[in-house]
């Protein structure tokens, strides 16, 4: 069976990870008129037969990190429902399973972290660089060839956390001066019942940031539970997210709403590893969002000691194993949102943590 035949049978994930077959691009049309295009290994573009003038261009990506498998299974489910005609998307979709080699090896990456390769086009020294470049081209082409009159661009890049977390599910809104924090996007966070959202304060080299910065997309990195083995993920905690994605794709009208049930954090600073002798003062199993009171030491980088600043800070994604020059942690503080009636949401720092 060819890769395309496998995908037509609803096996997007299996086809993507099957390296016994060489990749051949191709396209086909479903009975409903939905146009499917396999652009690269793991990159499937879906175009409904008719598009409303306000149709969205939605990128749903997974597998940027090979051991974060729940998102990969989610994209497989969506791709299969679409190609088997079980759901009718009303927006253009770009469904991505990014790094099948790392998925097959059950590793975060093979040579380097792909989610740090989206700032510029990369010199193609390894497979992560080649894939990141191909994804940049796919994104540029997808957003650049919109048929709708004034398309709304969305990108949800799905991940899982390495550590335990005080919030099982949360989103990171990348920093850009484009208007990429719409009330519709934040309503989606509410409807998907994500536990928290982090507002970045500086540009980052991530996939979601790429779409936000270069295409003005409503973009989020979304953390969906913890890393785990394919087929062993517990989807009960992800059910509201799964449901919200289906509503997004099929355009179920949902109220624009924001509630304080979603905890809001503002990134206060990014801790970059500057020295090979970098350590945290806490164990590797300490949960994301663990709070450090003002003045408490949380990391040592060569001669430099890091202490929590005024009113304290919480730590997210601490990773002492990153290469020198990369992010070793995000420090965050609680904040709240001003939910603007028009388009944007604004962060408001809380006077204390
Ligand atoms: O749990 C961890 O340490 C990492 C989970 C993960 O891959 N997170 C993303 C977040 C990207 C962002 O900051 O928007 C990453 O580190 O690439
Ligand atoms: Zn990840």
TrEMBL record:
The entry's keywords: Arginine metabolism, Hydrolase, Metal-binding, Zinc
Domain AstE/AspA barrel-sandwich hybrid: residue ranges: 261-334
GO molecular function: hydrolase activity, acting on ester bonds; succinylglutamate desuccinylase activity; zinc ion binding
Entry annotated with the keyword Metal-binding: yes
GO biological processes: L-arginine catabolic process to L-glutamate; L-arginine catabolic process to succinate
Residues of the active site: 223
Succinylglutamate desuccinylase/Aspartoacylase catalytic domain segment(s): 55-249
InterPro entries in the record: AspA/AstE_fam (IPR050178), AstE_AspA_cat (IPR055438), Aste_AspA_hybrid_dom (IPR007036), SuccinylGlu_desuccinylase (IPR016681)
Gene3D superfamilies found in the cross-reference section: 2.40.50.630, Zn peptidases
Domain of life: Bacteria
Stated role: Transforms N(2)-succinylglutamate into succinate and glutamate.
NCBIfam families: PRK05324.1
Full protein name: Succinylglutamate desuccinylase
Protein's organism: Photobacterium malacitanum
């Amino acid at each position: 069976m060819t890769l395309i035949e496998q995908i037509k049978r609803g096996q997007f994930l299996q086809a993507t990870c099957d390296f016994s077959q060489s990749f051949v691009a191709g396209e086909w049309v479903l009975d409903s008129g939905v146009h499917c295009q396999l652009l690269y290994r793991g990159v499937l573009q879906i175009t409904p037969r008719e598009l409303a003038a306000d149709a969205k261009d939605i990128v749903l990506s997974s597998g940027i990190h090979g051991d974060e498998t729940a998102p990969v299974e989610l994209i497989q489910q969506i791709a299969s429902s679409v190609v088997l005609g079980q759901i009718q998307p009303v927006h253009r979709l770009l469904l991505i399973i990014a790094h099948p080699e790392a998925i097959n090896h059950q590793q975060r990456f093979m040579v380097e972290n792909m989610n740090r390769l989206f700032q510029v086009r990369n010199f193609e020294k390894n497979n992560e660089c080649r894939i990141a470049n191909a994804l940049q081209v796919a994104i540029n082409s997808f957003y650049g060839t919109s048929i709708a009159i004034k398309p709304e661009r969305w990108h949800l890049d799905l991940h899982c956390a390495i550590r335990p977390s005080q919030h099982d599910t949360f989103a990171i809104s990348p920093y850009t001066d484009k208007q990429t924090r719409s009330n519709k996007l934040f309503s989606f966070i509410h409807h998907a019942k994500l536990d928290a959202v982090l507002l970045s304060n500086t540009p980052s080299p991530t996939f979601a940031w790429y779409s936000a910065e270069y295409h003005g997309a409503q973009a989020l990195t979304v953390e969906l539970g913890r890393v785990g083995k394919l087929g062993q993920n517990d989807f009960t905690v992800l059910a509201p997210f799964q449901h919200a994605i289906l509503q997004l794709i099929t355009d179920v009208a949902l109220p624009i709403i924001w509630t304080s049930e979603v905890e809001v954090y503002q990134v206060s600073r990014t801790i970059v590893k500057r020295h090979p002798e970098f350590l945290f003062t806490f164990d590797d199993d300490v949960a994301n969002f663990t709070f450090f009171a003002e003045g408490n030491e949380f990391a040592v980088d060569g001669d430099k000691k890091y202490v929590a600043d005024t009113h304290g800070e919480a730590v997210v994604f601490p990773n002492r194993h990153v290469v020198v020059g990369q992010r070793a942690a995000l420090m965050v503080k609680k904040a709240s949102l001003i939910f603007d009636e028009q388009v944007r949401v604004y962060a408001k720092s809380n006077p204390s943590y």
